[in-house]
Amino acid sequence: MEQKPYPNPRDSVRIEQKTYLDPRDIVRIVETYSDMLLRIAINRVRSIAEAEDIVQAVFLRLMTSQPRLKSAEHERAWLIRTAINLCLDFQKSAVRRTSVPLDAESPAVQAEETGEVLEAVWKLPERDRYIVYLFYFEEMKVKEIADLLNEQTGTITSRLTRARKKLKLLLKGDEYGTVSNRI
Fold this sequence. Notes:
The chain is mainly alpha-helical. The protein folds into 2 domains: 20-101, Rna Polymerase Sigma Factor, Chain: A (Orthogonal Bundle); 115-176 and 179-183, Arc Repressor Mutant, subunit A (Orthogonal Bundle). It has 9 helices and no strands. It has helices at residues 23-45, 48-65, 72-92, 94-98, 107-112, 116-123, 126-137, 142-149, 153-172. Helix 1 (23-45) runs antiparallel to helix 2, helix 1 crosses helix 3 and helix 7 crosses helix 9 (153-172). The protein is globular and about 50 Å long. It starts with 22 loop residues before the first helix and ends in an 11-residue tail after the last helix. 21% of the residues are buried.
């Protein structure tokens, strides 16, 4: 009985990698979601250059991991979750501690989205700011945000309600017309 030898790694045996995303799908995904992901990353890290790097890393991860995306909603959720995770990684990194944050008065921010509403959103605590941004600017449903952030829908609803009250104080002030600094 003759045994077959193990394959020699130097032989020209080509192992084909299974790909689930066609190059046209990747181009479509980049064209469809890059602006949204950039806005999310800017909102999170407040640096246009870092946000662009994060978006690029999201698409690189998409191409290298080749996730099986079942639907358009799953595709969008995967991209947003990946962007959030990369933003969190950036915030923990040493680079963030040595970077200068984006000034809310910079022309780049004003050109992208002007208005005191966005400015007020940026003044909210990070976890409130993110929920408000996803709900109003990215028009996500509470259930989608809850799934994305691994939270209960009731928790997201409560945070959104509290954030709205804080925004109201920031934008209109209290009953005496004064704007609160303690948000």
